[in-house]
Design a protein that fits this description.
single chain; 209 residues; alpha+beta; Jelly Rolls; seven-stranded antiparallel sheet; four-stranded antiparallel sheet; 4 helices; binds N-oxalylglycine; binds nickel (II) ion
């Protein structure tokens, strides 16, 4: 990612003002190809699992709240995504430098929403998981068009909701603790790399939600 300090300064300002920011052309074209390849490879391997929603979640309850499948990433294992982790390291250091956050780590997964799935309105910080500060999502939906659904709908406090199209190579970032958001029903297969900047080291992946 060739983004300079001025660029990041402007994005961080926006995020501070409106609680979210959207950055297009996030990965380089070459890296985007590799990200697609990795995602497809993991799908072929069948390593995605149904996402959870905390202790209370029976299968049925979970399905009524969120319908995505995830694959948790590990920096030391998923070396094919080295460039993604490098971008995330850059993002983390920019947050710390420009917004004076004390982010210590991040946790990311691949997310797949099959046709017909959604994620109801929620916050990303909740009881039992208070260390998520900033949510970061990189969309991988080639040729997304209106009608495909799966928009990220954000609900800034005191303002009308805003729909963000999950366009390929678009990155959405928002405050995990204050910004309510949801994923509208996706009428196609919807893919992303999704995660959180943390102010404490990540818990073990099997403990994450
Ligand atoms: C989440 C989430 C939004 C999106 O995983 O918590 O809200 O656009 N994802 O995928
Ligand atoms: Ni969320």
């Amino acid at each position: 990612m060739q983004k300079d300090l001025n660029f990041w300064d402007a994005q961080m300002d926006l995020l501070a003002q409106q609680d979210y920011v959207v950055i297009d052309n996030f990965l380089s074209p070459e890296d985007l190809v590799l990200a697609h390849k990795f995602f497809e490879q993991k799908q072929e391997e069948g390593v995605f699992t149904k996402a959870a929603i905390g202790a209370s979640g029976t299968e049925k309850v979970i399905r009524e709240i969120r319908g995505d499948y995830t694959y948790w990433l590990e920096k030391n294992r998923d070396l094919e995504l080295k460039f993604v982790f490098e971008s995330l390291d850059e993002v983390k250091s920019m947050f710390n430098r420009l917004l004076f956050l004390s982010l210590a780590d991040y946790e990311f997964h691949l997310a797949h929403y099959p046709e017909g799935s959604f994620y109801k309105k929620h916050l990303d910080q909740f009881e039992g998981r208070k260390n998520r500060m900033i949510s970061v999502i990189i969309y991988l939906n080639k040729g997304w068009k209106a009608g495909d659904g799966g928009e990220l709908r954000v609900h800034p406090e005191g303002k009308a909701p805003i729909d963000i199209a999950p366009l390929e190579n678009r990155c959405a970032m928002f405050r995990s603790d204050t910004l309510f958001h949801e994923v509208l029903t996706s009428n196609t297969s919807r893919k992303s790399i999704t995660g959180w900047m943390l102010y404490q080291p990540a818990v073990l992946p099997f403990m994450a939600l």
